[in-house]
Each structure stands twice: as structure tokens, then as C-alpha cells.
Amino acid sequence: MKGVLRLAERQPFALGYAALILVTAFIADAVRMPAGRIHLLVGTGYDSVVHLGRWWSPLGSVFFTAGSAQLVVVLVAAVLVLGSAERLMGSARTVVAFVTTAVLGPGIGILLQSVGVAGGELWSQHVRGLWVIDPLTPITGSIMAASCFAGPLWRRRIRVVTLASVLMLVLYSGQPADLYRLVAALAGWGLGFAFQPRPVRFMWRRSSHHETRTLLAAVVGVLALGPVVTSFSGGRFGILAPLGLLFNPDFSGAGIERDRCLFGDVTLQCVHELTLERLGGVGPVLVSLLPLLVLLVAAYGLSRGRRFAAWLAIGVNLGLAALGAWYYGLLPISGQSFVWHPHATRYWEIALTLVVSVLVPAATAVVLVLNLKQFPVRSRPGGPRRFALTAAATLLVLSTVYVGLGGLLRSGFSPQPSFLDLLADVPERFIPVGFLRIERVSFLPTNWLTGTLYHWVGPVFWIVVIVGAILCLRAAPVGANPEHARTLRTLLEAGGGGSLAYLATWAGNSYWFAPSGTTMIAYRVVNDVAITTSDPIGPDTDVPEAIAEFATMCDDHGWIPVFYSLHERWQGLFAEMGWQTMSVGEETVLRPRLWDTTGKKWQDIRSSINRADRAGVRAEWTSYRALPVLESLQIAEISEQWVQEKGLPELGFTLGGIDELRDPDVRLMLAVDADDRVHAVTSWMPSYREGVIVGWTLDFMRRRPDSMNGVMEFLIAQTARMMSERPEIEFLSLSAAPLAHTEELPGRLLDFVGRVLEPVYGFHSLLAFKRKFQPEFQPLFMAYPEPVALPAIGVALARAYLPDLSVREALAFVRGLG
């Protein structure tokens, strides 16, 4: 009960609106008023406003629902979506946004319809008689207005998902209600800017890699549902309705209409209703919907950063675009008798509809290609190859079975097909039946056995594709062989590798194990340069031999071996090998057993602790998996804000992001206030010796822009204080600021890279921050075989830290070395 009362206090308007919707639905049910009658009484639309003069209907129609299904959807949307809007921007602004968008959405939409009707535009003429009851219109407008009050993470998510959803409905369904929601969303977005007291800055803000993947996955998933919307929509008027209709297994005879279309007499009715007389059933439904399920599987893989999922989505979208172009005769040579002639495009809407139906999946594929670098997790070499071979083999076997058994059972078809007829019919068994509407039926099955063969080879193929895709996505990626991962964990827990050894567990690394099995080296190959991520992991006595063998392996592959972020104790070994070494930074290390904040040098740290106490901010030691959902969402939002403040993409390689926090062995130290609002977060990676954690290394640091001054100093100080009470903890590493040094970096290469990135990422400022804790400075160096490789190494390092680095930017690094 307390939870309900607290919810009512935070979103009274949303709950009141939901209650009012329930009351009107109850009254309509009590008087047994059918949905059609409700539409005529309170619905809005072109005829309602323009012809009948019901100027009040846009606002009045949002307080009623037509049918139990819409009632459930509206109630959920009112409580969750409208309630979220109210919590973000307050009740007063929510009421204003609700009423304003309830009027502007249908109002502007009807005005556009009026212009279309006056100009003879086909869509406006066909939907002029449709009346709308849609409470979702002002709810959509309200949440878009509230997005201006959300943090960067949810602001972008709300806008992308909302606009993608309403655009999908407009393009695929195309009913007046869909247009009104789109107008309401845009109006709400503008209203949210008007509510803001600060000036509006129209600029592109960069997303983190994690968030970019999430948004692309959401868009692909929403677009995959579009054809389903068309298939089950009561009205198919959207500009992409033809593409959706290609997946629609509901066939009826087109008769004269089909013949008229075949002769090029094109009408909107032709585009929407041209069909063939084919048998229905579960098979045609599955072969129409399963390719869309493949897209949903790909969308899941995209959210996990899998490169295979990106290529899968690209392939399916290109296939849809090609089939659409082939079906509508947009390809120069389509082999179809049904080709659009110049005089057939006298209705420009039809021509636009057909072109856009092809361009949308093609554009989706292009966007994914341009963002392939956002999906760095590659499947092991055998995975995609097995998937492709399995799909091809399944296609070949099913085709052979269809032709072979069909020949033996040809008496079960009418008319009886020849071998060539069966062979020519093979492609049609695997293509969504909607793509075949203009194909004349050569033969049809007449009994259950031939019917099963005819309808089910296609679904079996697509089921195999879906299962294969899921297995490929579930398989371990490159560098994540389960056996290798277990061995790596065993070596880490045994000790060795130094304070940065845990970097080896991150996604994107490849693993090389010494023949003895006691030593492992984690590395990444960038532009044929193999860059290690830390010291070799294993007993010190085995490391020299492992380094030599790893260098030999790299030479066998044509790679340049580069040992990066090594501790000083290994420098003599490389000098004996005749390799070149170069300082790349300094690690800052604290000794918890000696932790003491007394003295003038520690004034900033003490002030930060006292400031946190006065503000009621506490330090919370936890793990990502143990976080409540709200706290994990806040961490993602804080990280997104941090990324947006930068002028360059999120760094990688030796700097972790949100994905690295999910490791169960990584710990978080959060700054949380009395209202459970997270102000800042740090992450700490463990270092082991004989199975016991003997140290922690700082990795992830993010804070809210409006958090108290010194919140990071507070978190690190509280971590050091807590570790000082644990006698087994020997060190607390604040890690290294990449490419920063207490003195000028020796070597022109890394000095140049550091200077270029310094204005944006502030490596030297980060090093200065860490000096507040009076740490020990432990030099880190890089070892490489010969100076002539420095330009290639410089570009490889730049690309390791910035995977999105363009060719032009990479060349700038090389020119800077001259």
C-alpha cells in the first residue's frame, strides 16, 4: 500500500488519467456500446472535423478506448510511459504537454489530410472516412516532451525508440492515427525544448560503443516488426505496406484486378490487393514470418556486440531489398512479365511507395556496414563458416528432396509437374509467399503428403537458419574459448602478470599459451601489429622463454610483436634480446597498510571526505550483478554523459567501459546519497596470489556533472581506508594514465599520440589527479624489435585505443612522426 501511495504522489495525473479511461470503458460496456458506435460518437478524423464540424473531437477522443485490447495497452502506457513523463518533468508540465499534443497531433494531421484531399493525393482520399480513437497520441507527445528532462542515456533512448516506433507504424500501417502520433511526437519534442530554461544546443552528441549497439539493435528489431504490423493491420495504407504485404500469407483471388495490374493499369488497390490463388496453412505463414524472426535474432546479437549478427542483419536486409526490387520490377532485368511501365506511374505515390519499400531495408544494411566497428566481438573462425555451410547444405538437401520426392509423387499434384517444373519451382519454396503473388501457379498439391512437401521445405530451412544463428551467437567469441578462459582464470588466481594482468580477460583479446601451459600472453592484432595488453601471465621463471616463443609465433604470422604496458623488472630482458624499449607511462600504486591522511599534503583528500559526510553521500562496495536495477541504469546514464562530453569516441584497449563492469570478479565503489542517487562510480580489478586477492587495480571512473566536488577523491580514499583493514591486501593500484608521464614522454611517437589526445581525454590531468594520493610511481614501458616499425606501431596503438579512427586520422598520426 505504501508503494501505491508513493506512486500516486509522484504521478497523480497519470494514475488519474488511467482511472478515467477505466471509467469510460466501464460506462461503454454497461450500456453495451459497440466499438463502431464509440468511433462515431467521439472519434476524430478528417470527416469528423471538416465535414461534421466536431472541432472538439481531437481532445475528446483521447478519453475513450475501442475494445478490450486497446484498453489494456492504454492502461499500461498511461501508468508506465505517461507516469515516467510526469516523474521527469512534473505534473504541471505533463498536463500541458498532454493537452497540447492531444490537440496538435490530430489537428495538424487533419490539416495535412485536407491539403492532400484538395490536391487529389491518394492516401488522403483513401483514409478520409476513417475515424480515430487513440489515447496513445498524447501519451507519445508527453514522453517526447519529457525526454528533454532526462539524462543523456534515456533522452536518446526515448527519442530513438519512440520515433522509430511511430515511423514504423506510419510507414507500414499508414492509418490516420499513426500520422497523428508522429505529429504529436514531433510537437512534444519541440514543446520539451520550450519548457527548458537553458538555451537549446542543436549538435550531434556521440554515444558510447555500448549505447550505439543498443540503439542499432532496437532499430533493427523495430523494423523487423514492421511487416508483421502490415500483415495484421486492419488498414494497409503505409508507404511500406507493399513490403509488408510481401510477407502476408493471407491470399485471395485477385481476378480482374490482377489482370489489370499485369497490363500496367496500376492503382493503389492493385498495389495492396494483388494476390494469387494459393493454398493457405501454417507453412505459408511460417515461411513468411521466420525471415523476420531471423532479424530479431540478429537484433539480439547486435546488442551483444557480435560481428556475426551485424553481417546476418545486413544479409537479410539486402535480401529483402533485392526481392522487393525483383518483385516490383525495379531491377533492370527481373525476368518478370510484371514490369512497371512509364505510364503506370501516373500516381507518384505508388512510384514513391515502391522505391521506398526497397530503399528502407537497403539503407538499414548500409547503416550497419558503416557501423561494423561498433560490433567488435568476432565469432571463432569455425562458427560463421559452419553456419554458412549448414545453411547451404540444408538448402541443397531440401531442394533435392523436394525435386526427388516431388517427381515420385507427381500424381499428387494438379496438373502433374515435370522434372523441369519442379526444379523451376524450388526457389519459390523458400521465399515468403507474398513475393510470389504475380507468379502464375504452375501446379498445386492435392493430398496431405504432397501438401507437406510443398509447404514445409521452406519453413524447415528457415528454422535451421534460426537455430544455426542462435548457436553461432551463443558460441564463444574469438579469444573466449571456454577452455582457454578457464585456464586463464586459473593462471590469474595462481598469480603472475602484475597489477594489470586482469586486462587479459576483456573481450577482444586473443590468447597465446606457451607449450608448457604455464604462461599465457594476451594480445590484439591491429594492422598486422600484435600488441600485448600487460605482462605475460605465469611464473617469472617461465616468462623469458614464453616471450621468445611468442615473438617467433608473431614472426611466423607476419606480425610485428609489441609488448605494451610492461613493468620495469622486464626491461633488462628485452635489452639482452637487443629489442628497443620506450616509456609509455607510470602506474600509481598505494600501500593500504601505510594509509594515512594526516598532514598538509592530504588536505584535499580530507576535505573531500568531510564534504561527502555533510552531503549525506556514502561509499558502497558492491558488484554489478548485485546492483538494484535502478542503480545499474544510473551507472549507464553517468557513463553516457561522460562520453557525450568528449570530442572523440570512447577509448578502448587498456581502458574499460560499461561492458567490463559486468565481470563477476570486478568490484564497484559507488558514491550514493540518501535518496539512492548514484553520484559517481569506480571499478576495481583483482590481483591474486595462490588464490587469494592481494591487490585491486582501478579501471572505470565516471561521475555526474552535477556531483559534489571531490567525489572521486572520496571514493578512492574510502576504498584505500577499507583495504587498510584487510591485512591480505598488499597494494591498491590507481592504474596508469595512458601516454602520460611525470616527465615528458621519451620518444617522439608516443609523445605525439599523447599530445594529440591530451586536449580531449586529459591524460596528464588524470595523472595529476592521482598524484594527490602520494602514490609510488612505477614506470611502464613498451618493447619492440626494431625502430623501423615505429610508424606502423604508432598507427596500431592509435587504432587500438580508438577503433573508430578513420584512415585520414590515422595518416595524421603517421605524418606527425616525421
Automatic annotation (TrEMBL):
Keywords: Cell membrane, Membrane, Transmembrane, Transmembrane helix. GO terms for cellular component: plasma membrane. InterPro entries: LPG_synthase_C, PG_lysyltransferase, Rhomboid-like_sf. Pfam families: LPG_synthase_C. The lineage of its organism: Bacteria, Bacillati, Actinomycetota, Actinomycetes, Micrococcales. It comes from the Bacteria. Coiled coil: none annotated. This is Lysylphosphatidylglycerol synthetase-like protein (DUF2156 family). The chain crosses the membrane at residues 12-35, 55-83, 95-118, 130-150, 215-239, 282-302, 309-330, 350-372, 387-409, 453-476.
